[in-house]
Design goal:
This protein is α+β, with helices and mostly antiparallel strands. The chain contains 5 helices and 8 strands. The strands form 3 sheets. The protein has a 4-stranded antiparallel sheet with strand order 3-2-5-6. The site of adenosine-5'-triphosphate (ATP) has 13 residues, from strand 2, strand 3 and helix 1.
Length: 185
């Protein structure tokens, strides 16, 4: 597995804070009596503003890393620091709150609720995170949809690109100002 990074080089010492900082991360999946080591000692530092792609063959651990840095799953050992916070030591409840407020993940299959309109989908993370007063959620969701050119769409389209934009709008809405990640799922 390879991590490709497009970093804006600054002469001299790197002064930007690390947004993601993984150290000695191991992840083993247990299936019955078998234990499969998916990650074996990953060290990875990604600075704020870096554009990074994690590439590698199937089963090399790309999704597992994405799950580690977004707090969807926790390492078996090692530390995961995101924006200065040790997320591998958080409880399930703390992690859920942190994810809702700080992280946006755009999944390959969008995770839009098909029975809801685009506006209702865009409002869901605002309802869950409760960071915005209730009466401001619909206007903000409309504004977010407008940013991705979907203000006039009552329903999420079946067209992939449109659904991806709607999903980006939804997944990042609860995490305004937080790090965002996109994955193949
Ligand atoms: N929940 C799980 N339980 C058991 N094994 C798992 C689990 N999730 C992943 N694995 C195993 O861990 C390894 C890494 O999986 P992972 O999904 O991170 O790979 P990947 O690089 O994202 O692959 P792909 O390109 O196919 O998406 C694989 O061998 C996979 O079978
Ligand atoms: Mg994967």
């Amino acid at each position: 597995m390879v991590v490709l990074a497009d970093r804006v080089e600054t002469p001299g010492i790197e002064t930007r804070p690390m947004l993601f900082d993984l150290s000695g991360v191991h992840k083993a999946y247990r299936t019955g009596k078998l234990e499969y080591p998916a990650l074996t000692g990953v060290d990875l530092a990604i600075a704020d503003g870096d554009m990074v792609a994690i590439v590698g063959p199937s089963a090399s651990g790309k999704s597992t890393i994405m799950n580690m840095i977004t707090g969807i799953d926790r390492p078996t050992s090692g530390s995961v620091v995101v924006d200065g916070q040790r997320i591998d030591q958080m409880s399930e409840e703390q992690l859920a709150i942190w994810r809702g407020r700080r992280v946006g993940v755009v999944f390959q299959f969008f995770q839009l609720l098909p029975t809801l309109t685009a506006l209702e989908n865009a409002m869901l993370p605002l309802d869950f995170s409760r960071r915005v007063p209730k009466h401001e959620r619909a206007p903000l969701a409309l504004h977010n949809l407008g940013l991705v050119g979907l203000a006039d769409k009552a329903e999420p389209s079946s067209v992939g690109a449109v659904r991806r934009r709607a999903a980006a709008c939804c997944d990042c809405a609860g995490a305004r100002g937080g790090p965002a990640a996109s994955g193949r799922g």
